[in-house]
Structure formats: C-alpha cells, structure tokens
C-alpha cells in the first residue's frame, strides 16, 4: 500500500524505516529486581513483529526508590544480561517478521509522587485528596541534586544493553513533571522557570555527557498538565492552555541538542480523559473526546510550526478506531507531527500496522477505549488489553470485574 506512514525518516544522525511509534505502555510485569518478566518479553516480541519503526519501551526506573510498583522495569548491572537478551530477541523477531530494524528506546523515569513511598516536589492539594502525604514526603534539594547522576548511570547501562537511545521522561505527573509546576517550592528547584526546569535540563546534560554521540537522547514531555496553576505546568489559574513556558522549555531542549520530542498532555492520576480520551471510563469526562483530540492536534501542530527542526512524535490516536489510520496519515501529511504514536492501540491489536500495509486492517480488532488496561494497573495487577488478550481478559474478570 502506498502510504506516507511507510516512508523512512531521517533526523539528525538517525533514520527510522517508517513513521509509526509504539508508545510506552507499562505492564507492571517485571521481576522484583527490575528485569523483564515473561509477560514483558511476550509483549515486546509482539511489538517487534508489529512493523513499527520505533518501539518506545515502558518506564524504567533509575533507582529503587523511584519505582512506581514492584513490577516496574529497572536496569541494573546485575540484570543487564536479561535486557541484552530481550533486545537481541526483539531485533531478530523484527527481521523475521518484516525485515526491519526498529529503533529501540529506553524510557528513564523517577515516579516521584507515584513511587511506592511517595516522593513529592511540593504539597499538592488536588492529588492529595485521593492519596494523602505529609511534609516528610517532600524531597530535599540535596536529593534532587544527585538525580542527574542516576540518570547518567542508567543511560550508560542502556548503551551497554543495546538500546538505540533513551528518553529522559517528564510527563504524567511523575517527579520531573511535578517539579516543572513547583511554583510554591522554596530553594533552587522551585519558583522561577529557571529553577523549575533545572532538574530536567541538568539530567539531560548529564545523560548526553555520559553516552556516545550516536546514541539518541530524547524526551517524552507533558507539554501541558491541564491542572490549574500553580499546581500544573502549561496552564493558567483557570486551567486553560498557556504555552508560554512550554515553548521556552522546548527551546532549551532544542539548544541542548534534543532532536526528538514525544508530545503528551495531561496527568492520568488527575485527568486521564486528557491523555487517553475514553468511550467508557471510571467517571464522566468534563469534555467530549473530540475536544481532547483537537487539543492534541493543535498543540502538536503549534510545536512543529514553532520548532521546525525538531522531530515531533504525535499522540492521542487510539480513540479514533475506524478512522485511526486515516487520522494518522493526515497528521503526518499536514505536518502536525513527523511520527505518529500508538499506545493502547498496540496492546489491543499488535499487528495493526502490518495489516494496514497488507490491506487487511480490521476495525473490530482495534482498541475500544474502555480503560480496562488502566483499571488493571490501578488494581495492582499486571496490565494489558483486557478485551482482546485472553491473559488479561481473564485477570480482569477475576480481579476487577468481580469488585464492581
């Protein structure tokens, strides 16, 4: 099939075989030591066979205290062989299935407020309505000072494991993203924009200094939190989009040599309808899915127009279902973004892109935007598509549905 999605893209020192990105989807299915579990391996071998040009692997904690759950990935010296084996098997699976060589990225993270023991940037009354914390949970400046070194150490391990690059993650309310909205925090990580961006930018500098020049350093960024200022980044006190500070931050990223930005919005712990518009979810969303999808389109297009040299990964596609590939084609053709990212969609229908190229795209296999994959995670289960994958469907019936 003739399609813009199947055209290669070269940016800076890297080339990808097509415009499709599989977004990071955490499964909570790793070993207690952070190594990939059997379900982790199965998931990523499906991803490798998908035909996608980039596989943006799920959150990988840079330190034990930064893990969001005992089943989160964490790359260490001790489990390095397991990561090497998984990546080698993924590359072999891709060659055998579609003859390709996808870019494999490691998403480095610190879970912050969502860590097993919460580690927060400041007291946040909106979040604390559902997950109370105390002043003792506020991390010190001295603790934040050591994190760039932890990110650099994890990045060096990612090089050794065989990844093509790392994502210094700042999104969805985790620690780096929360620090961006630390307007009320005293000290060198709060108040001014320079202070609030210090941790994120210093960590990028540390990572870039720790890895070879041909190793990709990029970021997934919640450009706007859609949480009212002073508790959200990129928004006004009335919770309207304000791109003044995000634009200044992205300009700094470009100046630091970040060639690719994966755009996301919102915070799934506060407003999951923003970054994952749903047909059925745990509450009635205050806006229509169309409004949320339009916000993605407008913000991604704004970034691409303002920073034309930056390679932009678009998000917010899985809801479209029957129009999925048509919308994805349009986003690239109309220069909204350079690459299109699919999250929930690839958990539900891993072969969607190869089927599309073969003229066999099946709408009835597409993600139904029901939020069950998220519900599994919230119930402290391993997470996957509970509609189409028998393993997770059975688990959902046993652990979630029975409690409703």
List key phrases describing it:
single chain; 404 residues; eight-stranded parallel beta barrel; 14 helices; globular
Structure description:
This protein has 404 residues and is an alpha/beta fold. 38% of the residues lie in helices and 12% in strands. An eight-stranded parallel barrel has the order 3-4-6-7-8-9-10-11, surrounded by five helices. Helix 1 (38-49) runs parallel beside helix 2 and helix 4 (141-161) packs parallel to helix 6 (193-210). It is globular.
Global shape: globular
Question: Beta fraction of the residues?
Answer: 5-15%
Low-confidence stretches: none
Series of secondary-structure elements, N-terminal to C-terminal: EEEHEEHEHHEHHEHEHHEHEHHHH
End-to-end distance: 45 Å
Rg over CA atoms, rounded to whole Å, is: 20 Å
Strand order, biggest sheet?
A: 3-4-6-7-8-9-10-11
Reported for the largest beta sheet, the result is: 8 strands, parallel, barrel
Q: Helices and strands: which structural class? A: alpha/beta
Report helical residue fraction.
Answer: 25-40%
The helix tally amounts to 14
Say how many strands there are.
11
Averaged pLDDT: 96
What is the gist of this entry?
Helices cover 38% and strands 12% of the residues. It has 404 residues and is an alpha/beta fold.
Describe the secondary structure blueprint for this structure.
Blueprint: E1 9-11, E2 14-16, E3 20-22, H1 38-49, E4 54-61, E5 73-74, H2 80-98, E6 103-109, H3 125-128, H4 141-161, E7 165-168, H5 175-180, H6 193-210, E8 216-222, H7 244-255, E9 260-264, H8 272-275, H9 289-306, E10 311-314, H10 324-333, E11 339-342, H11 344-348, H12 352-357, H13 372-378, H14 390-399
Helix pairs in contact: 1-2, 4-6, 13-14
């Amino acid at each position: 099939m003739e399609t813009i999605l199947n055209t290669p893209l070269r940016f800076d020192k890297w080339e990808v075989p097509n415009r499709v990105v599989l977004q990071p989807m955490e499964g909570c299915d790793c070993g207690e030591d952070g190594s990939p579990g059997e379900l982790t391996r199965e998931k990523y071998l499906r991803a490798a066979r998908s035909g996608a040009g980039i596989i943006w692997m799920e959150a990988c904690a840079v330190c034990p205290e930064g893990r969001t759950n005992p089943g989160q990935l964490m790359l260490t010296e001790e489990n390095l062989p397991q990561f090497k084996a998984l990546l080698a098997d993924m590359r072999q699976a891709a060659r055998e299935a579609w003859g390709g060589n996808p870019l494999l990225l490691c998403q480095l993270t610190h879970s912050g407020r969502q860590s097993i023991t919460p580690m927060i940037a400041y007291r946040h009354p909106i979040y604390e309505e559902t997950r109370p914390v105390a002043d003792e949970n506020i991390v010190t400046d001295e603790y934040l000072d050591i994190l760039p070194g932890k990110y650099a150490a994890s990045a060096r391990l990612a090089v050794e494991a065989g990844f093509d690059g790392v994502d210094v993650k700042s999104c969805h309310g985790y620690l780096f993203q929360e620090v961006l909205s630390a307007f009320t925090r005293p000290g060198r990580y709060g108040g001014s924009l320079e202070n609030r961006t210090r941790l994120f930018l210093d960590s990028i500098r540390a990572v870039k200094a720790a890895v070879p020049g041909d190793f990709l350093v990029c970021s997934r960024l919640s450009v706007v939190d859609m949480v009212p200022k002073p508790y959200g980044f990129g928004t006004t006190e009335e919770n309207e989009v304000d791109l003044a500070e995000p634009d200044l931050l992205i300009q700094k990223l470009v100046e630091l040599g970040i060639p690719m930005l994966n755009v996301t919005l919102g915070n799934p712990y506060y407003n999951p309808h923003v970054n994952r518009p749903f047909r059925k979810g745990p509450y009635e969303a205050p806006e229509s899915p169309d409004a949320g999808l339009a916000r993605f389109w407008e913000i991604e297009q704004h970034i691409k127009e303002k920073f034309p040299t930056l390679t932009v990964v678009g998000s917010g596609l899985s809801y479209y279902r029957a129009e999925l590939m048509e919308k994805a084609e349009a986003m690239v053709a109309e220069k909204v973004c350079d690459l299109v990212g699919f999250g929930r969609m690839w958990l539900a229908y891993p072969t969607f892109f190869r089927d599309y190229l073969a003229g066999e795209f099946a709408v009835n296999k597409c993600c139904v935007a029901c939020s069950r994959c998220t519900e599994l995670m919230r119930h402290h289960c391993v997470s996957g598509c509970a509609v189409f994958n028998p393993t997770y469907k059975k688990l959902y019936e046993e652990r979630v549905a029975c409690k409703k």
